[in-house]
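So, is this right?
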Amino acid sequence: MQYGVITYTRTANMGDDIQAYAASRFYPHIDYYIDREKIDTFFSENSEKVAAIMAGWYMHSPLNWPPSPFIKPLMVSMHFSPSMELACGTIKKNALDDTASMDWFEQSGDRGVGCRDEDTARMLEKLGVRTWWSGCITLTLNRYSDVEKHNKIVCVDVENNQVDVIRRHTTKEVVSMTHRYTQCISVEERMKTVEDRLKFYQGASLLITTRLHALLPAIALGVPVIYVINEKTDACRFNSYLKYVDCIDKEDLLKGNIPYDFDNMAARHTMLNDMGEALSDYCKKFVCDCENIIDVPKLDVDMFIDSVKRTERLKQLIYKGINDKELIAWSQQTEDYCVLSRYGAEAMEHQNWDKAIYYFGLAFDECHGADIKIEMNIFMNYIRALVKAGDLENAKYLLDVGKEAYYKYEEFHELYQEVFKINM
């Protein structure tokens, strides 16, 4: 059996990679990295099904659902956000609730879909899907045998003024870190970065964080951890876990109302540790069963590719909601990115930042091979749309990615300087 790791590399957030890394440790070998947001178009080179642990946050791109028939799924640690459902509207709801989606969920067997959080479980149950709370795949991480304690207090994506308060309440060295990447690196490099980071976390005497995928790995690695509750705490993602961990409100921390002795924190064994062990056993059984399959099912690749091409075209038309007049204009264009850019510009004019991000993103994917200035201008419009939408994290990350190709151009340099002056 071949194995695939579900990844999402078009993000500056290390948390996605920590989940992928945790899932990959169950495999005897890795044959594919499967793009989570193109999961419906995946196929294997030898026509065989590929086993995959489906941990992750799905439906950012609702028309890319359900996953490809080339994937043999273990449905655990899956998250579908209710807030994303509201943002995406009818397209998302229908994509999750249609016959094809329901048929895919049926592959989960008698136990049902393992959900990363209780909110996801409740949402799927309303659609008639059997579910259980599996917990996050990062709870299955094993402690490393080659890690020595450095006994520092590690703050992960904690605001600077809060870190200053923490330093005044401890005799230990405090290190401030982030889960935001600052440069573009390969999947393999991301996995190595994750492993090095997790080992550093394990060596800490205490970890203080606002990140779910720093909180849960710390629990699995036996590191004392405190979660800082703030205005960005997403109830549907965090509430299932916070009742089992030490927490402090951001405002209490800033005021110095701290009920913890940072110098003498101990790791707590809770039901989350037991959940991680149970999920680990479930994943190991899945891989063991896969290894015992003698005749791996094969599918018709050529027919699947033809179907994907047709579906991709329909996706573009559905997302644009174009009328007959626009469809005629589309067919008369020699370059698709021209039309996509026009829709992006129109979306910007109407301050519909999400649509602008979508259109300029598609245009940039289509324009490779065009004049470098055209390519750069589409890329810059994509960045502007991200900034307008408030996604400074990815805007800055992608500007760093594009620096090598475009920094010699004055207009790109000006945009780069402008965006990096904005505080996160």
In short: The chain is about 50% helix and 10% strand. Confidence is low (pLDDT under 50) at residues 83-91, 322-335. The first strand starts at residue 2 and ends at 7.
